[in-house]
Specification:
With 465 residues, this protein is an alpha/beta fold. The chain folds into two domains: 145 residues, Thiol Ester Dehydrase, Chain A (Roll); 305 residues, Isopropylmalate Dehydrogenase (3-Layer(aba) Sandwich). It is built from 15 helices and 18 strands. The strands form three sheets. An eleven-stranded mixed beta sheet has the order 10-9-8-11-18-17-12-13-16-14-15, sandwiched between helices. Helix 5 runs parallel beside helix 15 and helix 6 packs across helix 15. The radius of gyration is 30 Å and the shape is elongated.
Length: 465
């Protein structure tokens, strides 16, 4: 056990000193900004910092100050110390990678009130003065030795907005595509379409009751001046019209608005007028999970309820093709079940074994498949090792192929609501990609999903050439 121990007033002599050495990391700047609320762009905006004459962002001046507080509070004098006053002068900026040596030296002691005055200074790795100051404290009179308190671990994570931005950035350099937005008659679906337009992802055609669409736009102060609207009386007509536009090649993608999934997908899968291909239609959630080092594809959590083996083969191939379009050359596919062994009592394990053999025989191509794998073994190398699983997929899966829609839906929503994942939802296997999100999803989720649709549409165009 580690202990923290003080020096009492009587144990400290004039001229006695203590030091602390610390190197500034970019994470320190971010953490200080978060805790203090000081978002001065000199510290947090690299582009601004360069334009202001710095090479890069610099640390907050008071970061050096908290190192002085560290020395005073932890060891010199340490536990029981009470701050009375502190002054600082800041001599030069501290940049990421600079190593500060902070020295606190006893200048004067006052017997009548047990105050001590300390000279405080910090120099960088080449001996240049960075910080100077004077601290006055009430020093402890009794010896204190206590176990160090275990503090919570603090972890910096990118904001959801920044992680959505990562998904959108995959479209850099790609052309804007035409997209039909089906019945965008509520706040988030219309905002999502307009945000995608304003991010130069799509040229949207809004398909639905024009009066409703314009009423929502007016409420949200959204500009529809340059956006086409196809006026149809209701959501079912909107689904029919949008699917017809895609079938005729007038749009390269669809986006679901404020209508039920069954209503849209019923038109998509209609044998005579829909958008079927030789491949079974399926859905993928692309999830950015803060605790996982890569994008995670979950399929199928929205379209196929209880897929059979043949359907699962198409679901796997659809997800692999999507991964290819996103620049993943050989995605790792974990076929999920409750256990890692094949047992006839659990159909998911039998299907997993068959899918792996189908991949061996070239019936599923472009990915690396393994299963059955339980969820922990699919995403945790440590869990896989504990169970003695030797696999190139276990612990580092890109794609999680779930046994049925219930398992997939619960998994995706657990990651979103309990693990702070951000997600995009896309339907694959149709003639055009279809942005399919929950009616409760935000405009940002819809925009990120649109970015994926743009990548798929552009990838399809390139392959066709």
């Amino acid at each position: 056990m580690e202990y923290i121990e003080n020096l009492t007033f009587d144990e400290i002599a004039v001229g006695q000193a203590a030091t602390l050495v610390r190197t500034l990391k970019y994470e320190d700047i971010q953490m200080f900004a978060v805790l203090s609320g000081d978002l001065n762009p000199t510290h947090v905006d690299p582009q601004y910092a360069k334009s202001a004459g710095f090479r890069d962002v610099v640390g907050h001046g008071m970061w050096g100050g908290i190192l002085v507080s560290n020395v005073l509070g932890n060891e010199f004098p340490g536990p029981g110390t009470v701050y009375v006053s502190q002054t600082f002068s800041f001599e030069r900026p501290v940049r990421v990678g600079d190593t500060l040596t902070v020295t606190v030296t006893c200048r004067r002691k006052f017997e009548h009130n047990h105050h001590i005055v300390f000279d405080c200074k910090a120099v960088n790795q080449i001996g240049e003065a960075v910080l100077g100051g004077v601290a006055e404290v009430l020093a402890p009179q009794e010896k204190i030795r206590r176990p160090k308190v275990e503090m919570p671990e603090l972890e910096l994570r990118e904001s959801k907005a920044a992680r959505f931005e990562h998904l959108i950035k995959i479209t850099e350099g790609m052309p804007v595509i035409p997209m039909a937005v089906v019945h965008p008659c509520d706040r988030e679906s219309l905002r999502g379409a307009i945000l995608a337009r304003d991010r130069n992802l799509v040229v949207p055609t809004l398909v639905g009751p024009e009066a409703k669409i314009r009423a929502v736009a007016e409420e949200l102060n959204l500009d529809l001046a340059d956006t086409a609207i196809l006026d149809v009386p209701h959501s079912h007509a909107a689904a029919q019209t949008a699917v017809a536009l895609a079938r005729e090649g007038k749009v390269a993608a669809l986006m679901k608005g404020s209508l039920h999934t069954d209503e849209l997908m019923g038109e998509v899968v209609a044998s005579a007028t829909g958008l079927r291909t030789e491949r079974r239609i399926s859905h993928v959630f692309l999830m950015d999970v803060p605790t996982y080092p890569r994008l995670l594809f979950i399929t199928d959590a929205a379209v196929n309820i209880v897929p059979d083996l043949v359907t699962k083969a198409d679901i796997a191939q659809n997800a692999i093709d999507l991964a290819h379009s996103l620049g993943i050359p050989e995605p790792k596919v974990a076929i999920l079940a409750a256990v890692e062994t094949v047992t006839p009592k659990m159909q998911a394990t039998v299907d997993a074994a068959c899918l792996c053999k189908m991949a061996d025989r070239g019936q599923i191509t472009g990915g690396l498949l393994d299963g059955p794998l339980a969820f922990d073994n699919a995403v945790s190398i440590a869990a896989a090792r504990t169970k003695g699983i030797r696999s190139a997929v276990a612990g580092q899966a890109d794609i999680l192929l779930v046994p049925d829609i219930e398992a997939g839906n619960m998994l995706a929503k657990q990651l979103e609501h309990l693990a702070e994942a951000v997600s995009a939802g896309i339907v694959l296997g149709a003639r055009v990609p279809i942005v399919l999100t929950s009616r409760s999803d935000s405009a940002e989720t819809r925009t990120a999903s649109t970015a994926v649709a743009v990548v798929m549409a552009c990838h399809k165009t390139v392959k066709a050439k």
